[in-house]
Amino acid sequence: MDAPLEKIADPTLAEMGKNLKEAMKMLEDSQRRTEEENGKKLLSGDIPGPLQGSGQDMVSILQLVQNLMHGDEDEEPQSTRIQNIGEQGHIALLGHSLGAYISTLDKEKLRKLTTRILSDTTLWLCRIFRYENGCAYFHEEEREGLAKICRLAIHSRYEDFVVDGFNVLYNKMPVIYLSAAARPGLGQYLCNQLGLPFPCLCRVPCNTMFGSQHQMDVAFLEKLIKDDIEQGKLPLLLVANAGTAAVGHTDKIGRLKELCEQYGIWLHVKGVNLATLALGYVSSSVLAATKCDSMTLTPGPWLGLPAVPAVTLYKHDDPALTLVAGLTSNKPTDKLRALPLWLSLQYLGLDGIVERIKHACQLSQRLQESLKKVNHVKILVEDELSSPVVVFRFFQELPGSDPGLNAIPAPNMALSAVSQERHSCDALNRWLGEQLKQLVPASGLTVMDLEVEGTCVRFSPLTTAAVLGTRGEDVDQLVACIQSQLPVLTCTLQLREEFKQEVMGTAGLLYVDDPNWPGIGVVRYEHANDDKSSLKSDPEGEKIHAGLLKKLNELESDLTFKMGPEYKSMKSCIYIGMASDDIDVSELVETIAVTAREIEENSRLLENMTEVVRKGIQEAQVQLQKANEERLLEEGVLRQIPVVGSVLNWFSPVQASQKGRTFNLTAGSLESTEHTYVYKVQGSGVTPPQTPSGARTKQRLPGQKPFKRSLRGSDTVSETSSVSHIEDLEKIEHLSGGQGASEANSPERHPGVPTPPEAEQTGALQDRAQHLEDDCPQADHARLLLK
Known about the structure:
alpha+beta; about 50% helix; about 10% strand; about 775 residues
C-alpha cells in the first residue's frame, strides 16, 4: 500500500495512513515485545504513572493496548474468539481515523464532503437491497433505528404531539405490536426510549395450529387490532421479522403489509434474512419486505466489517418530521457515521458483497442437507427452506409417540415421563453444543433455549462466517463431530433410567434428579448421621463423598466423576458423566455403594479408636499416679529425700519391680507390662476382629478398564471356577489339618480366591491400619497418641 499512499497529494492524510498501517501491524503481531526501560524515575503519588514525565512513545502505548486485548503472558489463554480482520476490515477501521481527520476541515468543505458520503451510501444500500427511493439512518445500536422510527410514527399520526405532548397520547394511547418470537427486551427498550408505559406494547402470539410456530399469527393479530380500535386505542406500528432472532423464520410479510395498509399501521421489518435481498434469487416472503415502511440492516456482521454502523432504511416525504424524530441531522459529524461503510462498500464492490452473502447461505444449505441424513437430529426449518439459519437438536423417540421433536404423547404415556425426557434431552443438547463449539470453533455455533422445542444449537453463518472465516470444510467437520457424539448421547440417555433403578434399589444410596446434568445421573450416599430433612451442607457427608470421589477417580475408568452440591440443597453428591455402550451400570452402582460404606466405617472406626485411646491415656495416668502413691507408702518418706534416701538405699537396698502399662488397641484396654519384663516378649493379646469385607471383586483381563459390560460372560465363568476351586481347597484343608491348606489358599499363590479365616485373623490388624492410613488423614494423630 506504499505506492498508493505516495500518490496522495495531502501530506497530512498520507502520513496519517502510514501511521495507521504501522499501528495495525504492531497490534496484530502478538510476538512483538518492547524492551523494558533500565532506569525508572520515582513516581509522584498524585499523578498516575502513565501520565508522568514527558509522555509515552507510540510503541509503549500500543504495547499496553495489546496486553489489555490479549492478556499478559502469565495469564491463561482465553477461549474467546478474536475477530479475524482482513483487508476490508482495515478499510473500515481506516474510516474512523479518516472521520476524525475530516472533522478538522473548514465548515464548507466538511458540509459538502459529508453530504456526498451520506447520499452515496444511502443510494448504494437502497440499490443493493432493492429498497427504492429510501432514506438511511446510521446508528451504532441496532435497536436505536427502530426507536427513531417509532418516534417518527408518533409525530406522523399525532399532529398535535409537538404542542400538547403526553396529553395527546393519554387521550388515545398508541399501540406497538411485537411478535412473541421477537428478541427479548425489545419492547422494554422501546418504552424506555419513547417514554411510553408498558400497556402500549401488544405481544402477538405465533401460530399454534398451522404454519411455523415461530411466525406471527396474522388472524389473531387482526383480532387484536380490532379490539384495540374498539377500546379507543390507536394501532401505531408493527414490527415484523425477516428471520427471527432465535431460529431465523420469516413472518408472512406480504399478508402483514396488506393488514397494515388497511388499518394505517406503520410496518417495520428486521432480521438476518434481509441480507438475501442482495442475491439474484430471493424468496417471496423476504422479497415482500421491500414494500414495507422501514427496515433495519446490519451489514457489519454480514460482510465481516468491524465497527460498521447498522442502517435503518425508511420512506417518508416530510423532512421536518424526520428531523424532529432524530432520523436526520444538520451536524456534519453525525453524517460521518456512514464513512466506514462508504469506504468498505467501495472496496468490496457488488461482486464481493454478493459473494460473501451467497457463501453464508451455501454453508447453511450444506449443513442442512447433511443433517437430514443423520439420525436422532431434528432440524427446525421453514417449509420454503429459505432461511440461512440452521437450528438443530438431538432427540430420542419415546415409545408410543410419533417420531419428531414436538410429538404429542400417546394416551398411555404419562405426561411426567415426556417432561422428564425433554429435560434430559435439553441437558444433552447443551453438552453437545458446548462440545461442538470447542471442536469446531470456526463454526460460530450458539446454544439457545426455546420455549417449545427446548435447548437447541444454532448455526447462523450470515452473522459469523465472514468474521470467523468459515469454510465448507468446517461444515463437514461439524457434521462428522455430530455423528461421533451421537452414540455417546443415545447411550447416556438410555442408561439414565437403568442407573436410576439401580440406585433406588441399593441401600444407602439416594438418586438425585438434576435436570441440568448431562451425564448418566447424580447419586448421594446417605450415611448413618445424615439428616434427610435438612437442606444445609453436611460436613461428614462431604468428607465421605470427597473420599469416594478420590477412590472412583483412582479406578481409571472411562467415566468422569465430579463432586458438587445437590440441585436443590447444599449437600454433596457424586456426578457421573457421559457413558459409552459398554458400561455395566450394576457394577458401577455396587462399587459406589460399597466404597462409600467402607469409607464411612473406617472413618467411624478411627473416631472410636481416638476416643478409646483418649480414655486409655486418662486411665493410665490414674493408675500410674496410684502406683506412685503405693510405692511411696511401701518405701517410706525417708527414701524420698534426695541425700538421705541415697544413703538409706545404700545400706538397705529396695528391690522395686518394674510396673508399667501398655495399651492394647485390639481389646481397647490397659494391660500390665510385667509379662513383657519377665518373659522378654510382648503378648499377642486378643485376636483382632475381622476386617469389613468389600464387594465382590470382578475378574478382569489385563488392560481391561472397570465397569465394562462386554466381558460379563467371561466373568461369570471365572467366578464359577473360583467357587469350585474354593470348595476343593476346603476339602484339602479338612483332610490335611489346616496347615497345608492354609499355604495352598495363600492369596499370593491363588489370586481371586478368598483368604481362609485363620489367615484373615492374622493380617486383619494390618489391613485395618492400612485402611485407616489411606482413608483417614487423622491416623497420624492417633499414632502420636499411642506413642
